[in-house]
């Protein structure tokens, strides 16, 4: 499987808070036919890791650093999977998941939370979707990806 990579320009775009990591035409061409995954995480290094692992597990990651950018893209495309942090600069990932569940068009999107939230908050999130607690190993995240694909 091709591994997702983030070029310096993409990392710069994320660091500037533009929200969505742009894709090259080559990346878009390689991803045709691969199930899309939306990744919403404000930590650039974590987003890079999530992108690489998600791509190596057969999904086509689209990375966002802001909920607002993910919401905008959700109006255009519905992913097979959403990986979302709960604590983001422009809101809570849980709010986005509630919106997905309330909309018949997006109700079936599989979700994984990746968060460093306190255990009390994680228990709340676990009622909505599986939670991978930061820090986590790549193996742990891959197990969550495989479980979500069942």
Explain what you see.
The protein is α/β, with parallel strands linked by helices. It has a single domain, classed as 3-Layer(aba) Sandwich (Rossmann fold). The protein has 7 helices and 7 strands; from the N terminus they run ααβαβαβββαβαβα. The strands form 2 sheets. It has a 5-stranded parallel β-sheet with strand order 2-1-3-6-7, sandwiched between helices. Strands 4-5 form a two-stranded antiparallel ribbon. Strand 4 and strand 5 form a beta hairpin.
List key phrases describing it.
alpha/beta; 150 residues; 7 helices; 5-stranded parallel beta sheet; disordered N terminus; single chain; Rossmann fold
| CATH homologous superfamily identity | Response regulator
Q: Average the pLDDT over all residues and give the rounded result.
A: 85
Assembly annotation: single chain
* Total helical segments: 7
What is the C-alpha radius of gyration, as a whole number of Å? 14 Å
CATH level 1 class label = Alpha Beta
**How do the strands of the widest beta sheet line up side by side?**
2-1-3-6-7
Count every beta strand, where a strand is a DSSP E run of 2 or more residues.
Answer: 7
CATH fold descriptor: Rossmann fold
Give helix % range: 40-55%
What structural class is derived from the secondary structure elements? Answer: alpha/beta
Beta content comes to 15-25%
Would you list the SSEs in sequence order as H and E?
Answer: HHEHEHEEEHEHEH
Distance between the termini: 20 Å
- Tally the structural domains: 1
